[in-house]
Give the backbone structure.
Amino acid sequence: SQQGEEDPQALSIQEGENATMNCSYKTSINNLQWYRQNSGRGLVHLILIRSNEREKHSGRLRVTLDTSKKSSSLLITASRAADTASYFCATDANSGNTPLVFGKGTRLSVIA
Amino acid sequence: DSGVTQTPKHLITATGQRVTLRCSPRSGDLSVYWYQQSLDQGLQFLIQYYNGEERAKGNILERFSAQQFPDLHSELNLSSLELGDSALYFCASSLEGQGYEAFFGQGTRLTVV
């Protein structure tokens, strides 16, 4: 079963607007990662945030983590048509040898 | 290019058949993961290997098996194939087990007819 769950399932915005995606998870984690997938292709790693971090930036990406609420958000600022993709959060739980578990993703459409 | 190579890219086979998907991880990575992605579904974790040994297992069907070889490449074997097994199968690798980013291959698209 999925550990992370992204919200919304789909998001459509105009180019230049900001896009915010959320991820909720169920168990304690070591870290949380965000990945991007262009249609039918392999996933590409965007950013990793550790459980003791609250916010992280990478270019136009800003990720926050609230371990008390078991949630994370990914903000893409000044979106571009090329940002159109599915975005997934992935967690590895803080117990034993747990694998990287993905949610179902948010499908982002950026309209030029 | 992620450095992870999956072959073949596409595979069409009949129900009841057996296929083998191959994955070469990124140089230096010890951990290999296999995922299944069906239409409109997220990535379902199948199995993870670390340095030749099975480390974690997801909801992998008994008809499916995998192994990681001494040179660290991995194979996923799918047998007695059913229509519902049609999906994208991804391999990913990471330096260690937990706490590291995973690098994904481009996937094998399996179609069972």
Observations:
- Chain B touches chain A at residues 2, 4, 33, 35, 41-43, 45, 48, 55-56, 58-59, 88, 90, 92, 94, 97-99, 101-107, 109 (CB under 8 Å).
- Residues 45 and 80 of chain B are 20 Å apart (CA to CA).
- The radius of gyration of chain B is 13 Å.
